[in-house]
Amino acid sequence: MIEHHVRVHPSADRLPREDQLAWKLASVATDAGEPDTESAAMAVNRVIDNASVAMASLRRRPVAVARAQAVAHRATAPGASVFGTPTRVSPEWAAWANGTAVRELDFHDTYLAADYSHPGDNIPPLLAVAQHTGRTGADLLRGIISAYEIHVALVKGICLHEHRIDHVAHLGAAIAGGLGAMLRLPTETVYQAIQQTVHTTTATRQSRKGEISSWKAYAPAFAGKAAIEAVDRAMRGETSPSPVYEGEDGFLAWMLDGPGSDYTVRLPEPGEPRRAILDTYTKEHSAEYQAQAVIDLARRLREKTGPLDTVRSVVLHTSHHTHHVIGSGANDPQKYDPTASRETLDHSVPYIFAVALEDGTWHHERSYAPGRARRPSTVELWRKITTVEDPEWTRRYHDPDPDRRAFGGRAVITLDDGSVIEDELAVADAHPAGARPFDRAAYTAKFRTLTEGVVTPAGQDRFLSAAEHLGDLAADGLDGLFPAVDTEAVAAHDACLPKGLF
User: Fold this and answer.
1) 76: burial class by Cβ within 10 Å (0-12, 13-18, 19+)?
2) pTM confidence score
3) At what angle do helices 61-71 and 91-103 cross, to 10 degrees?
4) Where among 425, 446, 471 does a domain terminate?
5) Domain holding 136: CATH number?
6) What is the DSSP letter of 257?
7) Over the stretch 243-257, which tens digit does the pLDDT of each residue have?
8) Helices 37-56 and 137-157: angle between axes, nearest 10 degrees
């Protein structure tokens, strides 16, 4: 790996393109060779994972709205597929609809380092463009692995959350790079596309603060749509704000650490295998990733606590990020509101711990149902749960060794009689370093569980066969990555939506 130091430069420096971060990211994309075997296998897992959660969210309102918008933009052949409908649409709109479907349940992969990310969000726009341009499964694999490489490098090197910038800014750059790798575009073209995408996808984290809205699902889909449009413009010869990262009025200078910004981004050397996708991990539970280990911990503690009406208080000792983003340190009263949106509840670790402690399980729909959130016993327990930052858990969260990195915490439960029950869990059971690391069989089981009643068993088999042979698929074989559903029933559901402009 090569360490690239990124800082602000005044315009008078005339920073050469080859020294700019956007160019270096573009070079990683255009230097992509044959995929590493393990990386390719993990990419297949994530294609399966994305389809699992997309199918489970087909009839949720934000997904239906995004699909309705997309279907209004029918494409002349070839176009791209949209989950849940036979209509082919323009690729940027397919990315919009499919990206929303994948993100809606907060149930696919994650990578946490200096910043946060859901790298699986790269896949919908890449798949849409692959279909539209007649690329093969091998081309798509190359794009996915390159996008993950860029995404993970940016998340490791540049913290956005510290400045309340939403993490999709890194996603946009990764998608543009992945598209460049898949389409084998010149470095110059990819460089321009990355800069355009970063410039247009920089937004605040208010989308994940307070009363969290459906935009949380739309945000990565918007980044994918913007990246496709940026690549299209760059291919036509259009240029971008430059240098978008290092400029004196650019991203670092005004959005991040200011004129004194100094970041280190580590990128692979030319010819070095792209293996960053292996550092990422998926979710067993439909909740924010930093709640995954907390759910497993609550299930374990349930056997020790006895009647929950005897609990006086629960304190979760955890990392800075967990405390301030999904814990009581966020100072969001909505995180304790029984009428809060699903999006808010899946970013409330006190709520999640309370439900997991009561139920001993977690479900992507039942655990968030309005009646479940308003259950009096749950509300009573929920409001006894707080979080505190523990410097040791913060240190472990940022440990450079992925085998020692920890995203969990320690629970201290005090009962009415004064007795104390304690336990801790560093990583979720499904984490690569956890008790039951997710493997192909687990991804397959997740797919079958989430698509039950939506995709027939034969349809499940056809999809899994296509996904598992991704690297060998011809261009028309990519259609097999869209599980067959009852499209007439989906259309009837969508017909009940309020009408918009399109």
Assistant:
1) exposed
2) 0.92
3) 170
4) 425
5) 1.10.4100.10
6) S
7) 999 999 999 999 999
8) 90
